[in-house]
């Protein structure tokens, strides 16, 4: 049998590992920060009607400029954005890849503050961009001073700021984002995949867009919108940035079915986001519950919680899995990450953690 090492794969990809969160069939899956609530049935019916209409036209290529979808996204975001400010792709991962294809590549660098979203370094290697992992402050916070010091030292071409940060949940202040933008001469991306779950009172970085043509804000329909399986991510930026992304996307990259489903879902954004408050409530329950059990949950503005104080993360991960609860070992010492689920799922997780504690 041929192994990967036998193939003439690119030298810079040798020894690398693909993205690999386990996909297991378990009763309680709280491992990849999905919205565990299904979309409301009335919305689903409307989406299906739109898909039925769209399928009749799939002998033709879809609208390459996905104008209706960009209009819907601009309306959803507000902040006086127009369709010319919007971009979308098959998940925000593809949006981020477009950014690296257009602004990164061989001889260029991408800086992020670790630990952060594991896909950033994987997307960097896929596009031949040099990855720089810079330090955070205590408890994964990121002050303007610490952030700017790394920019001045490394002079990166691109900076990815994850706000709130995955896998730590840490909210990021607009002050830090402004300071990073002012200190850099390159592209600054704020990945707001979890923005809808933020409860810190901090405004979205969308408020910083006017007058900052190198600032890009990426969002996704995967998390708050309960749309992970459809694959729709998007971005707001200066129209010139959007023109740059057009240079690298594949023609017709958003299928007619994807566009139809997303436009229909955005017609019901209020209902689609109905579960967000409920999920925030479950997240806060996890924080309190874990603290009561003697663990050390970190500050979070997202739909998941990173918690420390775990003696043997692999052992705890496996013991939970034996009880049908899948969470995530993100490789941070003495820590595990769990997504907020429905009330029942969250209870199953907290009960399992309590049972492990009393067995110890
Ligand atoms: C989940 C996640 C995404 C979203 O990915 P999609 O490709 O849109 O599903 C983006 N950024 C971060 C930090 C995430 O955690």
TrEMBL record:
GO MF annotation list: histidinol-phosphate transaminase activity; pyridoxal phosphate binding
Cofactor names: pyridoxal 5'-phosphate
Pathway the protein takes part in: Amino-acid biosynthesis; L-histidine biosynthesis; L-histidine from 5-phospho-alpha-D-ribose 1-diphosphate: step 7/9
SUPFAM superfamilies tied to this protein: PLP-dependent transferases
Enzyme Commission (EC) number: 2.6.1.9
Keywords: Amino-acid biosynthesis, Aminotransferase, Histidine biosynthesis, Pyridoxal phosphate, Transferase
Reaction(s) catalysed (UniProt annotation): L-histidinol phosphate + 2-oxoglutarate = 3-(imidazol-4-yl)-2-oxopropyl phosphate + L-glutamate
Top-level lineage group: Bacteria
Residue ranges of domain Aminotransferase class I/classII large in the record: 28-351
Entry's Gene Ontology BP terms: L-histidine biosynthetic process
Enzyme class: transferase
InterPro entries: Aminotrans_II_pyridoxalP_BS, Aminotransferase_I/II_large, HisP_aminotrans, PyrdxlP-dep_Trfase, PyrdxlP-dep_Trfase_major, PyrdxlP-dep_Trfase_small
Pfam families: Aminotran_1_2
Complexes and interactors: Homodimer.
Protein family per UniProt: Belongs to the class-II pyridoxal-phosphate-dependent aminotransferase family. Histidinol-phosphate aminotransferase subfamily.
Protein name: Histidinol-phosphate aminotransferase
Organism listed in the record: Okibacterium fritillariae
Gene: hisC
């Amino acid at each position: 049998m041929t192994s990967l090492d036998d193939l003439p794969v690119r030298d810079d990809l040798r020894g690398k590992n693909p993205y690999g969160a386990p996909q297991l069939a378990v009763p309680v899956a709280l491992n990849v920060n999905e919205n565990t609530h299904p979309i409301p049935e009335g919305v689903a019916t409307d989406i299906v009607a739109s898909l039925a209409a769209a399928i009749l036209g799939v002998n033709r290529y879809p609208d390459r400029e996905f104008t209706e979808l960009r209009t819907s996204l601009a309306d959803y975001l507000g902040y006086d954005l127009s369709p010319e400010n919007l971009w979308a792709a098959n998940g925000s991962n593809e949006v981020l890849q477009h950014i690296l294809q257009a602004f990164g590549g061989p001889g260029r660098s991408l800086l992020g503050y670790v630990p952060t979203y594991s896909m950033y370094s994987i997307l960097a290697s896929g596009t031949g961009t040099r990855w720089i992992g810079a330090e955070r402050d205590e408890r994964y916070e990121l002050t303007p001073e610490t952030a700017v010091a790394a920019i001045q030292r490394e002079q990166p071409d691109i900076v990815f700021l994850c706000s709130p940060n995955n896998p730590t949940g840490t909210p990021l202040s607009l002050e830090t984002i402004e300071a990073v933008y002012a200190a850099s001469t390159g592209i600054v991306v704020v990945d707001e995949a979890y923005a809808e779950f933020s409860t810190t009172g901090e405004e979205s970085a969308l408020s910083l867009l006017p007058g900052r043509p190198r600032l890009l804000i990426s969002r996704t329909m995967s998390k708050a919108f309960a749309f992970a399986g459809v694959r729709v991510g998007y971005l707001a930026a200066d129209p010139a940035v959007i023109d740059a992304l057009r240079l690298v996307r594949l023609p017709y990259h958003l299928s007619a079915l994807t566009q139809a489903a997303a436009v229909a879902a955005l017609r019901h954004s209020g209902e689609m986001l109905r579960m967000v408050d409920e999920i925030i409530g479950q997240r806060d329950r996890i924080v309190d519950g874990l603290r009561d059990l003697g663990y050390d949950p970190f500050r979070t503005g997202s739909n998941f919680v990173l918690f420390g104080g775990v003696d043997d993360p692999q052992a705890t991960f496996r013991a939970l899995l034996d009880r049908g609860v899948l969470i995530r070992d993100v490789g941070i010492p003495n820590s595990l990450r769990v997504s907020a689920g429905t009330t029942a799922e969250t209870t199953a997780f907290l009960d399992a953690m309590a049972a492990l504690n009393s067995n110890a």
